[in-house]
Fold HTH-type transcriptional regulator RipA.
Amino acid sequence: MPETRHLTPPPGATPEGKGRLPHGFHLGTHRHADGQLVYAAAGGFATTTALGTWVAPADRVTWTPPGFDHSHRCYGRTDFRLVVIPAGLCGELLAHPGVFAVSPLLREALLALTDPRESKPGAHRRLRAVVIDELACPPEQALHLPEPRDDRLRTATDLLHAEPARTTTLAELGRAAGASERTLNRLFQAELGMSFLRWRTILRIHHALVHLTEGRSVTDTAMACGWSNPSSFIDAFTEVVGRTPGRYQAGLNRPR
């Protein structure tokens, strides 16, 4: 198994820059006085807050506003990029965490901002303005896995987190959680804004992204994450991520 390294930053620290982080590296729960964008130029990572988890493949960037407790975990050898958005400029961006698609322009701006060298004085300030403009588009919800507050629903989702491939029905989860199937179905919609099947699919896609980043084949990933055949996995993955598993895996270490 790959080594897992843990790090908790000092309170209030808002780092900016880049670094190569190993698979399994975990940046513990912390918060910043400024906003922060995190981008993986290679590899992938997850950002977790009280509102849920966002998985970011190499074509997504996560946004965390000032004051939100959050943590990060890397999958694969990750080219980790952190860009600070000063608190005074955050009013133009989302007031809650989110994940955004990375356009070619946004990607180049993020890479340039994490290079300590400025091409000319004021270049980084102007690039931050470009980044803010690029993030004016709506965030993507497909890769967001919300987490429950209700104890019964949390019991059910914890069982799925522990074993994403399990084929347990909602009625069986209800018996384990001390709630009826009807009650759990209502709680999924009311607290998480989606059906049980949709939530479980996104959970499985999160795990599939990790397996693919680790180098597993599409077929092995499909079986490990609960799909009965690779075709149904490819369809579900493409609908959520926006590209096939093969194309996602091929682009993980593409030079940028």
